[in-house]
Amino acid sequence: MILAFDTYYSDKKAKTVAIGFNAWTDAQPHEVFTETLDDVADYQPGEFYKRELPCILSLLSRIDLTEVEAIIIDGFVILDDHGKPGLGGHLYGRLDQKIPVIGVAKTNFALINEGKREVFRGESERPLFVTALGIDLDVASNYIRHMHGDYRIPTLLKHLDGLTKK
Predict the structure, then answer these.
(1) Could you give the 3-state DSSP secondary structure of residue 115?
(2) Which of 4, 49, 83, 132 could form a disulfide with 140 if both were Cys (CB 3.0 to 4.6 A apart)?
(3) Which ranges constitute the DSSP H helices of the chain?
(4) pLDDT at residue 115, rounded to an integer
């Protein structure tokens, strides 16, 4: 199973949703996991992971990870070409580096050159920015490129974003 996570913040609450799917080309999730936490930490510039990582870890604790092939997060896995961990890098470490983590970001992060790939999907002229740990970056980028959907954002990731806001 592949898991994709996203979190939506409202006031001091965070709604985290994970969708599970079996193949990179799936159009529908196989499973949906949801959790809302109260009193989440405030955003700290440059330390976004401190806000979102506890939300992801809390939901992950309720999911059987034995069959998880990879985890997708909304954001960056690394923040520079020296491997400074972003949200996904911190998650990868907390998973004892046993499950690959792929970051898919909609906006560029200027400090990464070699450690990210631009992925163009559909007819969009704006790329997605992919980073990864535990899996070859080119392989991860191809997985994201070939996910279901004709548009820039893969169908499942668009669906996931909508679920966080319900």
Answers:
(1) coil
(2) 132
(3) 49-60, 87-94, 137-145, 155-164
(4) 97
What pLDDT, on the 0 to 100 scale, is given for residue 110? 76
Contact between 19 and 32 (Cβ < 8 Å): yes
Question: Strand, coil or helix: what is 155?
Answer: helix
User: Which residues touch 121 (CB under 8 Å, ≥6 apart)?
Assistant: 128, 144, 145, 147, 149, 151, 152, 153, 154
The pTM of the whole model exceeds 0.90: yes
Q: Measured between alpha carbons, how far is 135 from 51 in angstroms, rounded to an integer?
A: 25
Q: Any idea what DSSP says for residue 78?
A: B
Decide: 103 and 140 in contact? Cβ < 8 Å. no
Portion of the chain with pLDDT greater than 70, in percent: 100
Convert 10-38 into a string of H (helix), E (strand) and C (coil). Answer: ECCEEEEEEEEECCCCCCCCCEEEEEEEC
Phi, psi of 33 (to 5 degrees): -120, 135
Q: Domain spanning 2-164 has what CATH number?
A: 3.30.2170.10
Task: Identify the three-state secondary structure at position 59.
Answer: helix
The pair of structure tokens assigned to 97 is 């580096």
- Cα gap 55→28, rounded to integer Å: 24
